[in-house]
Design brief:
This protein is mainly beta. The chain has one helix at about 50-55; strands at about 15, 40-45, 65, 80-100, 105-110, 115-120, 125-130, 140-150, 155, 160, 165-170. The protein has one domain: Immunoglobulin-like, CATH 2.60.40. The radius of gyration is 19 Å and the shape is elongated. The chain starts with 12 loop residues before the first strand and ends in an 11-residue tail after the last strand.
Length: about 180
């Protein structure tokens, strides 16, 4: 992708315990400054929500079941929802979302098909991906990769952390021994 002419901070956030499916095609238009030519996909304003959460006092996580959620109805699963926004896009085909167990990876691509981009536009676009394949008692690391219309891939976001959604339920107290 072409060099970003006016870099802006990236907006990333994770929906805490999101249970509603997210629509990656929703967009919000914003007044755009006139330009001779649209610029490449570039991050929009704001700081990662994780940084805002770090400043707030940590709330205790609720207790609950850990592990695989495949037996839970899809709409009731706890999920991490990476979100990102572009200020404008040029020849943008789409995005892939990657997840790892640590900041250093390894990372695996989550989406089977790319999340479609807006092509070329000078309008602000909002994107998200709902990851409901998590163990709610673990933290994960994510990043988003952009794909242009020529197939060139580029890391679009920095690696960011999604904290655990709950802590393991307290183990049952041991039964008293019979004498």
């Amino acid at each position: 992708m072409r060099t970003i002419l006016m870099p802006l901070a990236l907006m990333l956030s994770l929906a805490a315990c999101s249970n509603a499916p997210q629509d990656a095609s929703k967009s919000a238009a914003a007044p755009a400054a006139p330009a001779a030519k649209p610029e490449p996909a570039k991050p929009a304003e704001s700081k990662p929500e994780a940084a805002k959460e770090a400043a707030a006092p940590a709330a205790e996580l609720p207790e609950g079941a850990c592990g695989d959620q495949s037996a839970v109805a899809k709409e009731e699963r706890l999920a991490n929802t990476p979100r990102w926004t572009t200020a404008s896009e040029v020849d943008n085909f789409g995005y892939d979302v990657f997840r790892g167990d640590s900041e250093d990876g390894p990372f695996a691509k989550l989406n089977a098909d790319p999340i479609l981009g807006a092509g070329t536009t000078d309008e602000t676009k909002n994107y998200s991906y709902r990851d409901d394949t998590i163990d709610p008692c673990r933290e994960y690391w994510y990043y988003v990769e952009s794909i242009d219309t020529k197939g060139t891939r580029e890391k679009f976001t920095p690696v960011f952390k999604a904290g655990a959604k709950r802590r393991p339920a307290a183990a049952a107290a041991p039964a008293p021994k019979a004498s």
